[in-house]
Structure formats: C-alpha cells, structure tokens
Amino acid sequence: MLPREFPQRSVSPTEALAALHALGGRQVRYEDGRVLNSICTRPLPVAIEAFRRFAHTNLGDNRLFPAAVELEQAVVGMIADLVEWQGAVGNLVSGGTEANLLALWAAREQGRSPRAGRPEIAAGLGVHFSVEKAAALLGLELRRARLDGRGRTDIEDLEACINENTVALVATAGTSELGAVDDVEAVAELGRRHGIYVHVDAATGGFLIPFARGLGHRYPRFDLGVPGLCSITIDPHKYGLSVIPSGCVLFAHPRIQELVAWDSHYKGTQRHTTLLGTRPGGAAAATFAVLTTLGRPGFERLVAECFARRDLLVSELGQRGFTLVTSPELTIVGVRCADPDDVLRRLEEQGWFASVSRRLQALRIVVHRHTPPERLVEFVDALCGVQQGLVAVGGTA
Ligand SMILES: Cc1ncc(COP(=O)(O)O)c(C=O)c1O
CB within 8 A of 100, min separation 6: which ones? Predict the structure, then answer.
C-alpha cells in the first residue's frame, strides 16, 4: 500500500522511480497479450519519446508554446484529411468523452430556441456512455432508438425519436459494444430534413475504417461530402496508437466551433475552444510522431493485422461451437453465453481480461495489436475450459 500522507521528507528521484518500478509488476502488461477488453494499447515507442520531449508544453498557451500549437493544428489537419473533413476546424482534446461533450454543447447552443422545451438528443441504443454523461451535464434528454440485428441504429426508430426539442442526432462509427457502424449518411439525411445538428462519434472507428476501406472493406460514408454532418470525434489514443490523453474533435465549420469558444482572463492568449484550459502539448507531439512514423502504409498494415486476428478469433470460436452476437464489422466481437459475468470472472482468475456488454449480456472481446494470434487461440481454449467447467457444475453456460 502506498503512503497517502503528504511526504514530510524528500527522497531521491532514483527512490521515487524505484517505487514506480515496483508498482509495474502489479499491472497487466499489454505485451503479455492477455488484454482483450481494451480499445487503448501501448503507445508506439516514438510516441512516448515525443511526449517526453514536449511534456512541459501547454496547448492552452499559444504565446509560450507556439510550436506545440502548430503541432496540434498539423495533427488536426492530418486527421481531418484522413476522414475527408478537409477544411474542418478542431482541437486535440483529452479523449472521446470531451470531444462528444464539446460537440453536443455546440449542438445545444445551435439548437437554442425560445419556444422549445427541454432540449433533447437522439441516438441508437449502442451509443457510448460518454454521450449519456454529456447529456446529463448539458441538461439534454437522451432518446434512444432501437438497433438492427447487427447493432446499428434503426433509422426509422431514430426518426421517431425526433420532436421539436431535438437539437442533435448522434451516429456512431464503431460502437464500443460491438464495433457497429451506423448508416451515417442516413442519419445525416434525417438531420438535413428536420434541420437538426448531426454528430458522428468515430472515437473507435476513426482510425480503423479509413484504412480498412483502403484494404477493400466497405462502410457507410461519413466524410464532409455528406451534407448535414456538423462534428466528429476521433481518438488517437485508441487505434491511433498514441499516448493517453489524445482525443480529437472536428467541426465542419468555424461558425460551429465558435459556439463553444471561451475568452480567457488574459490578453494575448487565444480563445479556448476546449473544455480543458491547460492541455498536454506532449499528446500533440506524440500523435504527430505516430502519424508521421506510420503513415497510411503503416496503419493499413496494422488494420490488416488486426482484421486477420479478428477473423482467426471468429473462426476459432465458430469451430468450438460459440455463437456470436453478430458478425463483427471492426475489431470487437460479442459472444453469447448464459452467464457472461461468471465467465468473465473465471477468465480473469486465469489472467485473461475480456469484458461483458451489460445491455447485450454477452462477452465482449476487443482485438488489438497487443494480442498475437497464438494468444487468441489460447484464449479460446481458456474460454472453452471455463464453459465446460460451468456445465460440469450444473450450469447452463
Ligand atoms: C465510441 C466511443 N465514444 C466515446 C468513447 C469515450 O472515449 P474516452 O474514454 O477516450 O473518453 C469511447 C471509449 O471507448 C468509445 O468507444
């Protein structure tokens, strides 16, 4: 147990680092390949080094750290280019939660009307809980539409959620639950027809879908050529292999970003367009280093590798008689089992970390670069063992 009292004596940096080193043994290591619940992974070494070099910089102060701010805007431009939102404006933020919050804040401001009642937003049931948090903070009522059999928002039901108080529709490109990709074009069309702001949450899918397309996979469009889209969330600290905290929010037009702009007390620093004031320039440097090191070929290799592993996992699960919730579109696999919480607990006792979707009552497995193919096969062996054990003690798993 670490001390919790404020230190009354000093120790050397070596001692402080030794204490951190000792803690390392109590944490799961991505390198062991046993983490199957995480959309984040170990950042590339170049990202860690870049973060270290810019660790002292603050993106909230453009006078002191213009180079960091330039890095931020270069990265924003690269990400905008990746998702074909060229000309969009945006910021690097602390993650998907902040990005979704900023987007919905802008939507609430845009949708303000003297006649309307409590403002509402509508999204599919698979929407990430960060949108629930944003709705709670912003005083928005969240209406949820049914999903289709593949975990995508049912567009007719989404339309049925719209009323005169609706200020935003949220489409998800890669749900956290199943990696499902909503028909963003159809959501945008609804937004256009009803005059409502449309936000795309591509926190998870944003660094997968553009490269998967390059490999020949087909997904709904969510580029700025689709009229009606107002903002998008994309997280470099997920499949973008950057450090935590690295999220990104883009707005289709500076006029929309202005809705969340805030003046600081001080003359000379830029208007803030993020929730946080002091922001890590290290994250901008890290993401810049990853994007430039890997480039499109590196990311395509990575996505091809992740998809090949996902296919291996799906095939192993199929051969052992497991049923999937649906055929996965990205890298998240839902597996039906009778008592997923118990299965999860038993897997964890054996050092495997998966997760359970509360809504679906299904085991949720995230495939990432840190889990090599042989580990996935071992994992399915372990899952079979757990299932058989449960059946042997009279369960119905
Ligand atoms: C689709 C989606 N949106 C938003 C978030 C929230 O991102 P963060 O945890 O970086 O705040 C996540 C996190 O997994 C996500 O998958």
Answer: 128, 130, 131, 134, 170, 199, 201, 203, 233
